[in-house]
Structure formats: structure tokens, C-alpha cells
Amino acid sequence: MRVFLSRLPAAVLGLAGLALLALFSMMIGKYGSGPGPLFAALRQLVTGEGSDPLLATVLWNVRLPRVLAAVVVGAALAAAGATYQGLFRNPLVSPDLLGVSVGASLGAVAGIFLSLPVLAIQLAAFVGGLVAVLLVTGVGMLVRERDPVLTLVLAGIAIQALVGAGISLIKILADPYDQLPAITYWLLGSMTAVTRFDVFSILPALGIGFVPLVLLRWRMNVMTLGEEEAQTLGIDTLKTRIVLIAGATLVTAATVSITGIIGWIGLVIPHIARMLVGPDFRRLLPAAMMLGAAYLLVVDMLARSIASIEVPLGILTATVGAPFFLWLLISGKRGWS
Amino acid sequence: MILTVKTLAFGYRDREIGHGVDLSLQGGEVLALLGPNGAGKTTLFKTMLGLLPVKAGEGLLDGRPLSGWSRRERALRIAYVPQAHAAPFPFTVRDLVLMGRVAHLSAFALPGAHDRAIAEAALENLGIAKLADTPSTEISGGERQLALIARALAQEARIVVMDEPTASLDYGNQMRLLAHIRRLAADGLAIVLSTHNPDHALQAADRVALLKDGELTALGATRETLTPNALKTLYGIEVVIGSVPGSDAFVCAPRPG
């Protein structure tokens, strides 16, 4: 109980900070910047009277979905990253590295190409992500004599190249006036075109994906000890691993299906969260989710405010994430020991 | 007999490492397994722990075939203290020991006050309570070995399998660890350990099993079994065994050519 109480303020503070950040994010943009327009739009919404229909459209149909998407996608990618890092016992593993993101992209691109409905695109993204992670880890298990991390990384690169070829093929086949721009733009990772419907449509998949991560949050700690130790401690590691990978992959695929690939969050955020709250997944999971949401909120605010054009998110997350990754490698600090 | 193996063959899927092993284990005793590198000690342990399937013969844990237990049920009976514990994440010693409780909890349960109390008691038992909040990645090899034994105690299994528990420890920690092992056996645990040091077997084991090329060359009470002849068979070197004035321990020393 004492532990619970001492943790409570941190969680409340984190959530309050996140809410403030989201509110602040609602005030940033080309049109209707600052607190004034937000209050005006709120008054329009409540009283039903107002003179600026454009403002309402911008705030409620463009900006709000982006803010919601940033929170949901950031939290989901960070949670998936924390899970993969624990399961593969490697703090440098991420949804990108394991090919989950790119596999999900192939599924989603194929879905767009075939003009499938939104839910079917999500399903295709999930299948694509799952197949990719199974291929990468399958190769990792086959090659037992080599350094497992190196094998995983190299297998990830190979699978990504293969999947990339598939995506290129679809791009060539796609209708250059209608589908191709949509596919290309979406592949860069963007929340510009996200609608409220998009955000709500992935909530079921996120909900299902998060169930195992939350329910197994303590067992997740034991899984980081490695296959044999976890087994002798009494865990059915195969089943647990499958359920957790499926959950993390579903969560990743769902976000990919609406925003495309937003790299680096799944790698960098779990690190920072681990530095702040330690490796215990019971605290790591919520901390990583809050930080991931906050990070993507900030990145998205930058994306729509630092230049006269909209800067694609992938560019910003990579400019922050890649140097951080290199710093981890070079400093040898690695953040986990 | 809480663990018995009869004419056991063990090894990996495509490679048999050893065969014809007969062993039994009861509560309150320490059994030391000695053998040259590559004799199959670790593989035999992994088979006893159910990490590898029995290839031929029979392995009985509490009267039931080893493969007849689920992982969870097996973990309630037999615990493992691995030799190389490479932790990628800095869990505190307390959290590491608490993980020994996982077999006692249902899949979605979190450890409660009862589990934490058992983990604390295990830390106390091995005298490492003051390390409880230290990251397990920042303690010495000897302390980590004690933490892993504490985790096995928290698991509350009657058999503890230790893979070279004294390897890579300094002399003082080796002696302290052997004393802990004797004490735990006196409390009723059955302990199987492997070691490369005959002195450690002479000092802490009730019985020894000598493994060479996957077969037992001898099994029995320590002082009767661990003879210069047996060690010559095992390692191919000449030794003498005797006591040093002032100590009641028997030690092994090389005999000049």
C-alpha cells in the first residue's frame, strides 16, 4: 500500500503533464494559434453560436484528431518497443529493427492498393507485421552459433530489404494519380491526414493488443531473464512469448495502419523510461506510454510549426532518434546497466 | 527418493551426450557432480530440470516422470541456480529474488505481501538483505550467486540444482558459499551441484557422482568414492588426498610425477 501511494503522485503528475501538453498542442498551428481561438471554438461548440465555421473545422476535424493520434500512437509504439526489448533481452531492439513496422507497411500498402476498407487494412498490417517478426526471429533461432543480437539485426535488415522490394512493386503497380500519392505520403509517416474516424477505428485493435502486455506485466520481468531461467522458474515461455509478441505486434500494426512508419520512438522512449523508473515492467510500461505520447505530441507540434511547410514526422523522429542511438552505442552506457 | 534417474540417456535432439546414468537424490543431502570439461554435467542438469527431454531410460520426480509435470509444477519441486546469469536489465536484488515466486502465482497475478515476505526471508537467510535495493548488475559475482540461491529458496522447491556455484568466486566467497550450501541441506533441501574442484566436493558433499564422457564412473559417499584412483580415471592426473594438521577438511593435492 505504501508503495502504491508513493507511486501514485508520479502517475498523476505524468498524466496531468500529458493533458497539459495535449491542450497546448491544440493551440499550435498555422490557423487559429494561441489560447484565444481554442476558447472561441469551445464556446462555439458549447453554445452553438459562432461566426467562424473554418475555425471549428480546423480545431475539431484537423487538429484534435492529430493530437489524439499523437497520444495514442506515441504510447502504443513506446509500449511495443518496451515489450520487444524485454522479450528479446536487448535494449537496442525496436519495432523497426524487427521488421514489424515495415512488414505492417507492406500489409497496409497492399490494403490501400486493393482499396480495402479500413478494418481490412488494419488486419493486413497486423498479418504483415506478424509475418515479418516471425521471419526475423525464426532466422534468429535457426542460427544458434552466432551472436544472437547480430543475427537478429542482420535478419531484420534482410527482411526489411525484401519487404521494401514488395512495397516498391506495389508502388509501380499502383494508380499513379490516385493511389500512389496516398501510398508515398503515408509511407513517410504522417498524421496530417488522420481523421477522428481513423483514431477510433484502431482503438479496438489497441485495446486487444494491450491486454496481454498489461496482464502479463510482472511475468514480462521474468521473461527478460532468458528462456532457460524463465522455464526453470515455472513459466511456459513459448506461450507467453507468442501472446506478448502478438500483442505488441498488433499494437504496432494498428498505429502503422493510420500513420505509416514513425520510427525511433519504440527504440528511444523505452530507454529513457528505463532510466527514469527502472526495468520493472509494472512501472516501465506506463512510464514508456506516457513518455511516448508526450514525445510524439512535441514532435508533431514541431512538425506543423517550425517551417512554412509541414515537416514529415519521420524526418523529425529520425533527427532526434538516430543521434541518440549512436550516443548509446558509442558511450557504451546503454542505459540498462 | 525425491528425484531418481534410471539408465538415463541425455543430450540434444540430434546428439546424445551421455547414457546409462543411475542417480537418486533425497532431501537433506548434497550431491556433487564432478567431471572433466565436456563430460556432460550441464546437459545432465538440464535434463533433470526438464529443459531437455529424456532421451532414453527414466527420470522420476516425486514418483512421476519428469515429462509428466508442467513447467509450473516442476518449478515448485526443482529449482535452478544457473552458472552464468547475464542480466540485460538492472533489476534490484529484491526484484530478482521475488521472481522466484512466479511458479506460485497464477498467470496474471502480481506478487503480494506474502510473496514479498518470503523473498525477504530468503535474502535474510543468505545474509544479503542489505543488498536488496542494489541493482543485480552492480553486485559482485559472489553476491550474485547468493542472490540466485535466494531466488531458488523463494521458489520453495525441495531440490536445488546448482551449476558450478563456486566457479569465478574468490576463495573467501567459495568457502562461505559452501557453508551456506551445507546449512541449506541441513534444513532439508536436496542439493545437486557441479564443481571442478575436488576440495569443494570433499568439503561440502555427502555423496559424489563422477561423470566422464557422459557415463558415471563412480557414485557413492564422498570420502570412499573420491579417491586418488577415481580422480586419475577422471582427469588423468596423479593426486593424493589427505588432511592438513589443524583442519578437519580433506584436501586434494597433486603428486609429483
Structure characterization notes:
The complex is a heterodimer of chains A (337) and B (257). Chain A is mostly helical. Chain A contains 14 helices and no strands. In chain A, helix 3 packs parallel to helix 8 (196-215) and helix 4 (100-113) runs parallel beside helix 6. Chain A is globular, with a radius of gyration of 20 Å. Chain B has 257 residues and is α/β, with parallel strands linked by helices. Chain B has helices at 41-48, 71-75, 93-98, 113-125, 141-154, 171-186, 198-204, 222-225, 228-235; strands at 3-12, 15-25, 30-34, 56-61, 64-65, 78-81, 159-162, 190-195, 207-212, 215-221, 239-243, 250-254. In chain B, helix 4 crosses helix 5. Chain A binds chain B through residues 86, 89-91, 215-219, 221-222, 224-226, 228-229, 231-237, 274, 278-280, 282, 336-337, and chain B through 46, 49-51, 70-72, 74-76, 78-80, 82, 85-92, 95, 99-100, 102-103, 107-111, 135, 137, 151, 155.
Essential attributes:
heterodimer, A: 337 residues, mainly alpha, 14 helices, 76% helix, 0% strand, B: 257 residues, alpha/beta, 6-stranded mixed β-sheet, 4-stranded antiparallel β-sheet, 9 helices, 32% helix, 28% strand, globular
Topology of this structure?
The complex is a heterodimer of chains A (337) and B (257).
Chain A: H1 2-25, H2 35-47, H3 53-87, H4 100-113, H5 118-142, H6 148-173, H7 179-187, H8 196-215, H9 217-223, H10 227-232, H11 237-259, H12 265-277, H13 281-303, H14 313-331
Helix pairs in contact in A: 1-13, 3-8, 3-11, 3-12, 3-13, 4-5, 4-6, 4-7, 4-11, 5-6, 5-11, 8-11, 12-13
Chain B: E1 3-12, E2 15-25, E3 30-34, H1 41-48, E4 56-61, E5 64-65, H2 71-75, E6 78-81, H3 93-98, H4 113-125, H5 141-154, E7 159-162, H6 171-186, E8 190-195, H7 198-204, E9 207-212, E10 215-221, H8 222-225, H9 228-235, E11 239-243, E12 250-254
Parallel strand pairs in B: 3-8, 3-9, 6-7, 7-8
Antiparallel strand pairs in B: 1-2, 1-4, 4-5, 9-10, 11-12
